[in-house]
Amino acid sequence: MKKMGLLVLPLLAAGLIGCASQKAAAPVEAEAAEPVESNATSWISGVPSWYVNPPEDDGYIFGIGSAKMARSDRSRSAAEHRARTSLTFQMKALVEAMETDYYSEAGGGASTDAAVAEMFEAVDRQLAASAIKGAKVTKRDVGADGTVYAMIAYNQAAAENDIKGVIESAASKNARIKSDAALKAMDAAFAQKISPEPVETGGE
Q1: Full domain range(s) for residue 10
Q2: How far is CA 60 from the centre of its chain?
Q3: Are residues 45 and 142 in the same domain?
Q4: Contact present, 174 and 115 (Cβ < 8 Å)
Q5: Does 55 lie in the same domain as 18?
Q6: Considering 97, 118, 123, 204, which has the largest number of Cβ atoms within 10 A of its Cβ?
Q7: Within this chain, do residues 92 and 4 fall inside the same structural domain, yes or no?
Q8: Burial code of 133-157, b = ≥16 C-beta within 10 A, e = fewer?
């Protein structure tokens, strides 16, 4: 009987450890099942339709990217990183359009003012930093060949608030900067924003 008891105790301990391991693993499974993958995605030639034709929405700025790596988790991380790079390109184009429009709004001589160039460089840096923190993954799908496609979105109102903050700060330090012209240029740039270009490269 003592021998039977000695055999049962290790089995019970193994069973308890096994249960504990299963309970510990549950949060990891829940985290992996974020509500960004869509069962209703339509595909065009093996690519998600939203990747081929990104949405147009006045409330958001989008970025898209794709990746195929040796492991699925790396594919997902790379696709999301490339989508953020795509978003960065989008916002850089917006800032360039703003700077061009500002010179037209502000009149002659504005383009030769170093303070203006510095202001737009600050706008560019602020938007890049804000997008890293504020942009959210809104779609992620996996192709038949294992390629992961990702889209991220950054709230346009948040971007506009960031830009306004930089403009107002710069204008308060330099009277030559015309904040009204800069804000009009911002509105014009957002009104003419272009569709995101995908960032995609080969796997590892």
Answers
A1: 1-33
A2: 11
A3: yes
A4: yes
A5: no
A6: 123
A7: no
A8: eebebbbbbbeeeebbbbbbbbebe
**Residues 98-118: tens digit of each pLDDT:** 998 998 888 765 556 789 999
Q: What is the pLDDT of residue 1?
A: 47
For residue 197, the 8-state DSSP code is P
Q: Residue 16: is its pLDDT beyond 80? A: no
Question: Distance from CA of residue 55 to its chain's centroid?
Answer: 15
Q: Provide the residue type at 52 as one letter.
A: V
Q: Are residues 69 and 18 in the same domain?
A: no
Residue type, 47: V
Which distant-in-sequence residues (6+ apart) come within 8 Å of 5 by Cβ?
Answer: none
What residues contact 160, with CB distance under 8 A and at least 6 apart?
186, 190
**What is the per-residue pLDDT across 163-195, written as a single tens digit (0 to 9) for each?**
999 999 999 999 989 999 999 999 999 998 888
User: How high is the pLDDT of residue 18?
Assistant: 44
